[in-house]
Write a structure and sequence with these properties.
Elements: H1 9-16, E1 22-27, E2 35-41, E3 46-52, H2 60-79, E4 91-92, E5 101-102, E6 108-113, E7 118-119, H3 127-143, H4 162-175, H5 185-205, E8 213-215, E9 224-227, E10 233-236, E11 243-245, H6 247-258, H7 276-290, H8 296-302, H9 305-322, H10 335-352, H11 354-366
Antiparallel strand pairs: 1-2, 2-3, 3-6, 4-6, 5-6, 7-9, 8-11, 9-10
Helix pairs in contact: 3-6, 3-7, 4-9, 5-9, 6-7, 6-9, 7-11, 9-10
The structure holds 2-acetamido-2-deoxy-1-O-phosphono-alpha-D-glucopyranose and magnesium ion.
2-acetamido-2-deoxy-1-O-phosphono-alpha-D-glucopyranose binds near residues 33, 156 and 240.
């Protein structure tokens, strides 16, 4: 949800670094929810300052406690692994020792470390990148496998719950507050045609005997930092939604951006298809790290996970379009509709590649 930009960065920085002067603060990254600035002080030290969207993350204290707990855990685990190139971001408390800072206009802020010599990409351009991303998210998941999930707050309740997402979609269609239903008929029809199957997968993975794990829940390719020179994965970022989940959420959401031949909001739908080489490379990297711990049921659930996660993103984007763009940042009035159409096209493409992707997963599990 978008809010007015009313704040003074100087005052906020003073609450964090009372003794330092900063000579630049530049907008950074391509997130759709929070606002991020790269700040540099006179000594050349860099940090990331982020305004947390507290309409999306309503429990900011719970969110920041999660982040502190998760990053501390990662730090401890990584300190015990000699020679690991992997690192983690850290939360920098404000001058009073608080994990976040609230300004006079009720904006919430946090500062985190900046990882130097790293790059992110929105699109994968080589098998090695896909493998690196798989390795990173799989390793991340494994490092967090001994954080008790019930100690983490649910930062967005029912985040990947298809029933709840459909209920919001149905309400948005019904209310049609900005008179956009007519312009989205084809996508609405597609969404409705998928309802049964999508809800069935969610029911499968939320059965009482299905393992709950600490998952990242937002595993886009651009949430992996690669070392600028070696191009190897060194860090997983955007920890806002690290909370209890199922393995398929992370596998599926990553495939959505990693095996997609086009951008998330591609207007030219013919450009969107599944790159099977990237699919395989990502799956190999991911399962090399997280595969051993999976139960048979979890392994079986992975195949449909990309369809599910791609579809749920499209459904959320379409709902936002119907509600008048109240959630995601947009660049034009049709942006959310274009995003939804692109996601739905990818669902259809995943469907077409189902035999090949099943074969890939079977081979990896047998090897
Ligand atoms: C949002 O802010 P960003 O870009 O990291 C969204 C994800 C979506 C993504 C789509 C909290 O993530 O769920 O997959 O946009 N995050 C939230 O690009 O809603
Ligand atoms: Mg995010």
């Amino acid at each position: 949800m978008k809010s007015e930009r009313r704040f003074s960065l100087d005052k906020i920085l003073a609450a964090y670094f009372p003794d330092a002067s900063f000579n630049s603060a530049i907008p950074f990254g391509s997130g759709h929810i929070n606002d991020t600035f790269l700040i540099t002080n006179l000594a050349g030290e860099k940090y990331l300052l982020q305004r947390i969207n507290h309409q999306v993350f309503q429990d900011v204290a719970g969110l920041m406690n999660n982040m502190e707990r998760v990053t501390r855990h990662l730090q401890q685990k990584l300190a015990g692994q000699t020679g690991s190139r992997f690192t983690t971001i850290q939360v920098i408390p404000n001058a009073e020792g608080k994990l976040f800072h609230q300004d006079e206009s009720s904006n919430y802020w946090r500062v985190i470390t900046f990882i130097p010599n790293s790059v992110t990409y929105d699109l994968v351009t080589s098998e090695d990148q896909a493998y690196q991303a798989g390795y990173a998210f799989g390793y991340f998941q494994q490092l967090l496998s001994d954080v008790p999930g019930d100690t983490l707050a649910e930062t967005i309740p029912q985040f990947h719950d298809m029933k709840s997402r459909f209920a919001k979609f149905d309400a948005a269609r019904e209310i049609d507050s900005v008179d956009r239903v007519k312009s989205a008929e084809a996508d609405i029809e597609f969404a409705l045609s998928q309802r049964k199957e999508m809800i069935a997968w969610h029911e499968l993975v939320t059965q009482p005997d299905f393992p709950r794990r600490v998952t990242h829940n937002d595993t886009k390719f651009n949430n992996v930092l690669l070392d600028r020179e070696s191009q190897q994965a060194i860090c997983v970022i955007d920890l806002d939604t690290v909370m209890p989940g199922v393995i398929g959420y992370d596998f599926g959401d990553a495939i959505r951006t990693i095996a997609n031949t086009a951008e998330e909001d591609e207007a030219e739908l013919t450009k969107i298809s599944v790159n099977l080489d990237y699919y395989r490379a990502f799956a190999q990297g991911f399962l090399s790290e997280s595969g051993q711990q999976l139960t048979t049921l979890e392994k079986q659930s992975l195949h449909y996970a990309p369809n599910y996660m791609t579809f749920i993103m499209g459904l959320r984007m379409l709902t936002d379009y119907l509600q008048g763009d109240i959630y995601y940042k947009i660049s034009d009035t049709n942006h959310n509709l274009r995003r939804a159409a692109a996601q739905f096209k990818l669902v259809a493409e995943l469907e077409k590649s189902a035999d090949q992707t099943q074969q890939i997963l079977t081979e990896i599990f047998q090897s």
